[in-house]
Amino acid sequence: MSEVRLLVGGREYTVGCAAGEEAHITRLGEMVDAKLQQLGGNLTARDAQNLLFAALLLADELDEQRRTAPDTGEVRQAIAEREDEIERLRAAHQDAEVDAAATRAELEGLRKELEDLKGSGAAGSPAPDLFRDPDLAPALERFADLLENCAEKLESKTGAP
Known about the structure:
mainly alpha
């Protein structure tokens, strides 16, 4: 057990405390002394009554702080809700990262497939874009007519109905 000497209201007091608590007790004694000094000219000749008034002032301040402080249960509930929200957001972020990785892999596969298609043209040159050729449709129609004529001639020579 340790002892601390406090100067409160111009008088010295010796107070016992647990080892390691000396600085804390000294700080509390300074707070009581500050309250006594606030009383100033209202001090009486009796030390006990002056200390009582200082203690009442400190108790009043403590009571006010406790009444205006948020309820710890409400604060804990709000913290728990925020932690749940953070966890949900982390899970959603992780899911989004997995989806993004899958999309990147699919995109890379499509790029490779496109490169393979482009590379299948003659002598390594890209294949012509046949679907954008304006002469393609009329040429295909002429080819279809020729095929029909050939089919009709073959059918007439073989006697097929």
